[in-house]
Specification:
The chain is α+β, with helices and mostly antiparallel strands and 122 residues long. It has helices spanning 21-26, 42-57, 73-78, 105-112, and strands spanning 32-37, 63-68, 86-91, 94-100. The chain has a 4-stranded mixed sheet with strand order 2-1-3-4. InterPro entries: Thioredoxin, Thioredoxin-like_sf, Thioredoxin_CS, Thioredoxin_domain.
Length: 122
Amino acid sequence: MTTGTGALSTTHIPAVTDATFAAEVLASELPVLVDFTAAWCAPCRMIAPVLAELARQEAGRIKIVQLDVDDNPRTQAAYGVLSMPTLLLFRAGAPVRSLVGARPLRRLRQDLAPELPWIAPE
């Protein structure tokens, strides 16, 4: 059984739930990268420090949150998330980019750059 803190609990990335998703993600003025994760997911643990570093580097320009799929099946189903980790980037309340699987920071920045040009690797 999971506690709702999910795979990223040690990285200080805030968690969202089915109940808080609309307020925290869809209503956010910043772009939001949602990490659909699970405590049992090894690749989720691999990407956790990457997401923490991206959150640190881009504080104030992008919001990064996690959603534990075991504890929040409604949101997972609503966005058709089948694999973990899945990263969904939201802008103005709509998903604009989907990334599946763990990746290093440089590649994550490259993958997000089409939607967030300022985030491209140096």
